Amino acid sequence: MASSKIIVNYFDLTGRAEIIRLVLVYAGKEFEDNRISRDKWPEIKPKSPFGQLPFVEIDGKVYGQSLALANFFAREFNLYGRSNLDSLKIDQVAQLNEDFFQEVVKVFTADPEKKAEVEKKLQEEAAPKFWGFYERLLKENNGRYFVDDEVTLADLIVYDAITGFIGSFTGPLPDRYPLLKALVEKIGSNQRIAAYKAKHQ
Amino acid sequence: MAPKSMRLIYFDARGKAEISRLVLAAAGQTYEDVRLTKEQWPAEKPNTPFLQLPVLEIDGKRYGQSIAIATYLAREFGFCGKSNIEELQINQAIQLAVDLMNTGSKAFYESDPAKKFPKYFQFFEKLLKESGTGFVVGNSLTLADIVFYDLVFNYISRKVASIEGYPLLQALSKTVESNEKIKAYLAARKPTEF
Q1: Which tens digits make up the pLDDT trace of A75-132?
Q2: In angstroms, rounded to a whole number, what is the distance separating the alpha carbons of residues A161 and A155?
Q3: What sequence ranges are listed for the domain GST C-terminal (chain A) (predicted)?
Q4: Between A68, A83, A87, which is nearest B92 by CB?
């Protein structure tokens, strides 16, 4: 894997691909960050395994499903915990976040006249629910990280939920989640992450 | 380190717990298969990590999220591939199935539900073709096979889809059903609507 050639294919957005990019950036693994414009997508589509983005080429073979890929790279680069139980704790966060993502999907698939109402529900009910779960899980561990005493995929997933795609629909994190705020600060000020984010403002 | 005691807590249904039960069955693993009634649920709800079922209790500690639980069990008992790339392929297949289930509830209310499924069944068939072993990944039973099997079983038993025209998917269903331990489990399984 250290010498593997990796190409992440996605639109020029955070969206579903950002977690893959964050894992690779955090791990210091070089990759081609192939950002595709909407009009180029139809000609690239046949290359994708399931007619969707993101898809990732690993030494010439293509794979889809952002969470499967994020997990894979997390395992490759020791960001997936030290035991099966650690991995369960990480997957718990990852799957909760998938549920959170589905709440956001409700907003952009809502009928135009229902959209404002659905968005309000996301911001006032769903977001506090998931933020609350994440804050509690941090507290139940050691207040600093989701698993053990180091960054794992779970921390990057929640960082992405707050600063990336989900966060753009929920609005900024309220102050009543101090542990989450501290986590986002810490990940955001990681040298590699900060440099990467600066490139894609 | 294998857990000393496990309880899988859910309703009296297959639903989101069944893939975990199938993994445990295939592994020949004893566990407590706790089934709550609708009346018991309100009192139990605050005792769950995320106010939902299923919950897996491992040596007294509770965990939620059906896919996380099933994957933990699959890894614990050797149904999650023999390499990281195999685990990627297994997760890829499972996430595809989850995508289908996410669109599936909408399709249930659509006038032509058959529209949604062919796309995904084609992907499942494609993965099986690429594998060429009769299993989704590698050459033995993994969580990917169990997830596909359970999904197909649900859709067919509720008559919302058919796998006519997907011979590899049909064969996979039979393969999973004829796994010795799963066969015994299915024979004893009480039929439930969901």
Answers
A1: 999 999 999 999 999 999 999 999 999 999 999 889 999 999 999 999 999 999 999 9
A2: 10
A3: 83-201
A4: A68
pLDDT above 60 (res B107): no
A36 is a domain residue: yes
Note whether A82 and B1 are within 8 A (CB): no
**Hey, are the CB atoms on A76 and B84 less than 8 Å from each other?**
yes
Instruction: Report the pLDDT value the prediction gives residue A193, as an integer from 0 to 100.
Output: 98
Neighbours of A36 (CB within 10 A): 16
Is residue A1 one of the residues assigned to a domain?
Answer: no
Regarding whether A164 and A90 lie in a shared domain, the answer is: yes
Please give the helix or strand (H or E) that residue B57 lies within, else none: strand B55-58
Counting every residue written for chain B, the total comes to 194
Task: Categorize the per-residue pLDDT at B104 as very low, low, confident or very high, splitting at 50, 70 and 90.
Answer: low
**Contact status of B6 with chain A (Cβ, < 8 Å):** no
Report the CATH number that the domain containing residue A173 is assigned in CATH.
Answer: 1.20.1050.10
B94 neighbourhood in chain A, CB within 8 Å: 68
d(CA A156, CA A24): 11
Read off the pLDDT band of A73 (50, 70, 90): very high
Query: Testing the interface with B: which of A85, A86, A90, A100 to mutate, by most B Cβ within 10 A?
Result: A85
Count the domains in chain A: 2
Answer whether B85 touches A (CB < 8 Å): yes
Domains in chain B, CATH or no CATH each: 6-77+182-188 (3.40.30.10), 84-179 (1.20.1050.10)
Q: Are residues A128 and A173 in the same domain?
A: yes
